[in-house]
Design brief:
By secondary structure, the protein is of the alpha/beta class. The protein contains seven helices and seven strands; from the N terminus they run βαααβαβαββββαα. It has a single domain, classed as Aconitase, domain 4 (Alpha-Beta Barrel). A seven-stranded mixed β-sheet has the order 4-3-2-1-5-6-7. The longest helix has 12 residues. The protein is globular, with a radius of gyration of 15 Å. The chain starts with a strand and ends with a helix. It is an enzyme of class 4 (lyase).
Length: about 170
């Protein structure tokens, strides 16, 4: 896959951002768009007003810990987040994010990225360029089947595409 580039402004958070912070439980029954209006509300009440399409959430260790609710990555995606970059993720959040087509990337050097920096992420090449600081980073390249999943917009759209092709 070529040409899968995400460019956006950084919204930076710390360690142990759990699913209750990302997607507060009292909004789980709302539509995805309405739920997205409350994304990150527990730590950043203005997040949904500040985030622009393609912006990038950067966080420390254990992003997405807590419950296995799928609404956490869905709220971020529908808020317009183009990708999440963290030191490491809670595994269930990581898998849920990929399943709904939200790129999640592990980068040990997240401490070098600041709130408001502009990043350019090339998923196919495994690179992150901090355009604000003129610094480049590498992350473990995503396997082709994960790039295909992200390009399709998630697991359900990918399966729908494959079923249409097959039948």
């Amino acid at each position: 896959m070529t040409g899968y580039v995400i460019r956006g402004r950084v919204h930076k958070y710390g360690d142990n951002i759990n699913t209750d912070i990302i997607s507060p439980a009292q909004y789980m029954e709302l539509s995805y768009a309405d739920m997205a209006a409350h994304a990150m509300e527990g730590i950043d009440p203005d997040f949904s007003r500040k985030v622009r399409p393609g912006d990038i959430v950067v966080a420390g260790k254990n992003f997405g810990s807590g419950s296995s609710r799928e609404t956490a990555p869905i709220a971020l995606k529908y808020a317009g987040v183009g990708a999440v970059v963290a030191k490491f993720f809670a595994r269930i959040f990581y898998r849920n994010a990929l399943n709904i087509g939200l790129p999640v990337l592990e980068l040990p050097e997240v401490g070098e990225i600041n709130d408001g920096d502009e990043l350019e992420i090339d998923l196919a090449r495994g690179t992150i360029r901090n355009l604000t600081r003129n610094k480049d980073y590498r992350f473990t390249a995503l396997p082709d089947h994960i790039l295909e999943l992200l390009q399709a917009g998630g697991l359900v759209p990918l399966l729908e595409q494959k079923m249409q092709t097959k039948y």
